[in-house]
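Hi W.,

Here's what went into the run:
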Amino acid sequence: MSAGHHHPIYRPADTPVHRLPPQCKLAAVVAFAVFVVATPRERFWAFAVDALLLAAVAAAARVPVGAIVRRMAIEVPFVLFALAIPLIGTGERVQVLGLSLSAPGLWAAWNILAKASLGVVASILLAATTEPRMMLLGAERLRLPRLLVQIATFMLRYLDVILDQMRRMRIARESRGFVARDLRQASVLAKSAGALFIRSYERGERVHLAMLSRGYTGEMPTIRDISATGRDWAVAGMLPCLAAMTALLAWSTT
Amino acid sequence: MHVPDGFFDVPVSVGAGVFAAAGVAVCLRGAKRELDDRTAPMAGLVAAFIFAAQMLNFPVAAGTSGHLLGGALAAILVGPYTAVLCVAVVLLVQGFFFADGGLTALGVNITLMAIVTAVVGWAVFRLITRGGPRGRATLVAASFVAALVSVPAAALVFTALFWLGGTAPIEVGSVAAAMGGVHLLIGLGEGFVTALTVSSVLAVRPDLVYGARGMTRALTLRTADGDVQVGPAAPEAPSAGIGLRPVLVGGALVAVLLAGVVSFYASSAPDGLEKVAADKGLSAQEKPHAAEDGPLAGYSVKGVENQRMSGGLAGVAGVGLTVVAGGGVFYVIRRRRRAADSMTPASAQ
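Here's what came out:
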């Protein structure tokens, strides 16, 4: 669920991982996630190798284990779902600790847990070592549609403003004795949402006018050029290449 | 609910990614028409609003709480194209900046939570507001139904994707029942909150509600000489945007391509579950499917020798059947709508 994680994970530091151009890191993490998902789930060692690769990146970026583990709480809803699969799954039943579990269900649960955890850790490492602004510049370098990147830029820039507005409205509600007990109170929350929409929309209009008066023509100027050298790509490419080799080995040793 | 990595196999993830990219590309063009050069700041701020609104938890019952998904709400407030863009950006930001939702599952997440909810919500909303009487009550009721339908629709598409390439061995029927049931409840809450939110915005700034364009009455000044209509008699109702034809043709091409070509590769190796089943000797327990002897059983066409050709043909035939079934429904609805449309001018005059 998307509640309670509105603080970006970025941890400022000066390590080789932090210094890599953002477009290299973005491409590397996405490719890594694809190769992990393509790895056959019966090869436990392949996932151990992938985990070791991520551990090496974390060590190089000096991201503490505790920070990663705390952030991994985000996958708790799906972990709960994955744990339920062996109970409700079909197929042969095996007895584990007196529980009758589905064998393919156990495989599926393992599959989701392993791949989702590796993917989440890779994303956490990316977000922890890349400033949000740089990530957007990197996305633009990767030829993502400029309009899409601009929308994301504005969203990130004003997110805290909007969230603060929402927080002030919550404090105002609560200081007048409002407690959300059941669905009947939803109408109050919906009115808050409506007010929040009007305020966001009107702020968007003001921002647009302010930008027009400063010469906005529909495109943001490039202030900072971030170009990647071949060496940068080679360094960033190590992670997905090793993961791809692991996946290939895992497939060929079936 | 964000789908993590590893929940769907690679072909489905890639297919959904291609579909999501195409959908977002169409919406980028459409949003420029809805918002012209204001697109970036406006859509950005609305995306921030959706992100914030998703954090408004409302208690449902017995200690559980739900939160808004916002696809239908965004479509009604800012128009379908901008809505898809906003929710897609929210999902992208959640995936890359907050590690919420798998990166390989981004295509699936955008397809389900941005495209399906916004498009279905908007279609239902338009269907009702066009047919029903003008006025705030119709708009609010239409918002309720649109949001209510959009959530189970996304759950059903999830089930379809799960059937195509889910990695968990759960019967599709029970997934459909569980997902549909739970999301019908969530949809009720979503519809309730969406309708109330739209209603409160309509009360303060009806001009901001995209879905209400052309639906609100023009301002009337009551002077000593009688009533005077002021200003343009309400801006025209939003057009459907680009014609339906390019979307239909493009969609059909993508579907046939995916079904015919991708299934070559998808079906050439047994999937993980089949493989484990064969390894562990589970195959003996498999019950024959009821449609085992059907002409498309096991995704291959009987009487076609080449296995890959046959798989591809079955895929194309499946798409054809779906298109015919969907087209039939669409045709019936449109005929009804035309009948309704030909009624309304007479009654309006």
